[in-house]
Amino acid sequence: MFADHGLQESTDNISRKAVSGFNLIYWRALDDHFPETLGYPLKGKDALKPRDICILYKLPVGNIPEISLIQRRGNCIELNDFEVSTRHDVDTTGLVCCWPSEDVLAYFCISHSDVFRSKKVLELGSGYGLAGFSIAACTDASEVVISDGNPEVVDYIQHNISINAGHFGERRVSAMMLHWSQEHPSEILNTFDVIVASDCTFFKEFHESLAWSVISLLKHSEESEAIFLSPKRGDSLEKFLQKIREIGLHYQLIENYDETVWNLHQKFLKGKNNSWPNYDKDHFYPLLVRIKFFPFS
């Protein structure tokens, strides 16, 4: 719970958290008595804390089991979270919830699973990593690295990898603390075939470091690409794409990239779907950005 109203108000202003979402992936919250359901002992240091909740996501494909993600209860931000944020120069948005763009990214990746076949994949700024976990469970990727710059978020990711390990088959799945503004480990430079990210372009002060992270981590080949889903949010997305151009990368910006997502978007705009009453295209509809080293054919 927020310590005072001022902290909550500042976070709401920064993120404009949606009260609803596209809901492309069905989910339900489990009660506090679920260790047997998960098949993973949540005892001792792994015991569920009062601030946490377990969300079960039913991925929309074949016979894939449900993915279980332990995450914070809604708006359950503590004073220590802001201290960690200041110390590591990161934001706390990854702790707040699974954002609407992450839901769309996860759905998009599942729907285009062929993109990840035999590929080494990195999710940047993952938050709880629904997209990364979906890729790990539903595609034939060879390796999936789920990364965030907030060490508290990375702890959740690592915990959730342990819980869901049985769903990944032979795929290597790992958590990584990756701060865009810091020097990246030499062993991962230009090694990823595909990079994915959602709603990572809001903070303009991170644009340059995010762009350089893409060019530093993406494998230098014609086939490799970064896939971003992000709302415009004023001129934030355009400012990020300007950085992408400046460092010599090429991109495509696509508004209508999936029929289901587009139809939902149109219904929200026209009031034909009332499940998202505060829907705002500029802040909530994620555009698809494909980024490559070489020009698109």
TrEMBL record:
Its main location: cytoplasm. Keywords: Cytoplasm, Methyltransferase, Nucleus, Transferase. It is found in: Cytoplasm; Nucleus. One of its GO terms (molecular function) is calmodulin-lysine N-methyltransferase activity. It holds the Pfam family Methyltransf_16. One of its GO terms (cellular component) is nucleus. Its EC number is 2.1.1.60. One of its GO terms (biological process) is methylation. PANTHER family: CALMODULIN-LYSINE N-METHYLTRANSFERASE. This is Calmodulin-lysine N-methyltransferase. It comes from Ananas comosus (Pineapple).
